[in-house]
Design goal:
Layout: E1 7-12, E2 16-21, E3 24-29, H1 32-44, E4 52-56, E5 59-63, E6 68-69, H2 81-95, H3 107-123, H4 129-139, E7 149-151, E8 160-163, E9 166-170, E10 177-179, H5 181-189, H6 196-203, H7 209-229, H8 240-245
Antiparallel strand pairs: 1-2, 2-3, 3-5, 4-5, 6-8, 7-10, 8-9
C-alpha cells in the first residue's frame, strides 16, 4: 500500500469499522465469528467477490471490487434495468449453490426478535403504535417454514457492485448463512420497490411477492432502533421508516 495518500472511513460504529486504504479494505470487527463466516463465505460463494488478502485478528484485509454499487438506500438508483436484472441472476446463482456448513437463524429466534423490537418501539415512542401494529401484521407472511438456501444475509443495495450491465462483485458476507431466499431479494429491494420486477426478471423463477413485502416490514421494524443507536438515520426519505409508512 505504498504511496497511498488517503484513508477513508467507510463504516464506523461500536461493533466494527471498515476503512478503505487505496484499493484495500480493512475490516476491524469485535466479533471474530463474523469474520470467520465472511472468509469462508467468500471462498464458497459462486459469484464475483473480493479477494481475501490477509487476516490478522481483529483485522481482515480484502481487495476492492471494480464498478460502483447499484445505489444507496434513500436515493434513486442510476443503474440500468439490465444491471438490476443481472443482480437478480447473481442471487439465483448463489441460492442454487450447495448450502454453507453453518446454520442460519431459526424462525423462533426471528419471531422473538421481531416481537421484542415491536414492543420496545411502541414503549419508547420511537414509532406510533398503529404503524408498528400494521407492519407487524404484514410481517406475519414471512414467518413460515422455508427451504433453506445459501443466502448472503445482508444483501443491501450498497453491497452489489456493477459495471455497465454486469455484476462485478458482492461484498460484506459476515451474515451469510442458510436462510430464506426471499430475505435476500427483499433486502436488496428495500426502499427500491420499483426495481423489484427487474430483479425478479433476472432471478428467473416465480416468487411470492407478498412474502418479500413482509420481509421489508420485518427488516425495517427490527432495524430502526439499532440504526438510530449507531449513528444512522432510519427517518431519512426513502429509508426504513418510509418503508414502514408505505405499508399503511
Amino acid at each position: 500500500m505504498a504511496g497511498v495518500d488517503e484513508v477513508r472511513v467507510v463504516v464506523a460504529h461500536e461493533e466494527r469499522v471498515t476503512l478503505r486504504v487505496g484499493d484495500v479494505f480493512l475490516k476491524v470487527d469485535s466479533d471474530q465469528a463474523r469474520i470467520d463466516v465472511e472468509v469462508e463465505a467468500l471462498a464458497l460463494a459462486p459469484v464475483p467477490t473480493p479477494r481475501v488478502l490477509w487476516r490478522q485478528p481483529p483485522v481482515l484485509a480484502i481487495s476492492a471490487v471494480p464498478g460502483t454499487a447499484l445505489g444507496v438506500l434513500g436515493e434513486p438508483s442510476a443503474a440500468s434495468s439490465a444491471a438490476w436484472a443481472a443482480a437478480g441472476a447473481a442471487i439465483r446463482t448463489l441460492h442454487e449453490a450447495p448450502l454453507p456448513p453453518w446454520p442460519g437463524r431459526s424462525l423462533d429466534s426471528i419471531v422473538a426478535e421481531l416481537d421484542s423490537e415491536c414492543e420496545q418501539l411502541v414503549a419508547t415512542g420511537v414509532l406510533p403504535a398503529d404503524l408498528v401494529t400494521r407492519n407487524r401484521e404484514v410481517a406475519e407472511a414471512a414467518l413460515r417454514p422455508w427451504t433453506p438456501v445459501f443466502t448472503h444475509g445482508d444483501l443491501q443495495i450498497t453491497h452489489i457492485f456493477v459495471e455497465g450491465d454486469e455484476v462485478t462483485g458482492i461484498i460484506d458476507w459476515s451474515e451469510a448463512a442458510r436462510g430464506d431466499a426471499l430475505w435476500d431479494l427483499a433486502t436488496l429491494t428495500l426502499g427500491h420497490e420499483e426495481r423489484l420486477d427487474d430483479v425478479l426478471a433476472g432471478y428467473g423463477t416465480a416468487v411470492d411477492v407478498d412474502v418479500i413485502r413482509a420481509w421489508w416490514s420485518l427488516r425495517s421494524l427490527t432495524a430502526v432502533r439499532w440504526l438510530a443507536e449507531h449513528g444512522f438515520d432510519p427517518a431519512k426519505p426513502g429509508c426504513e421508516i418510509d418503508v414502514l409508512k408505505a405499508r399503511m
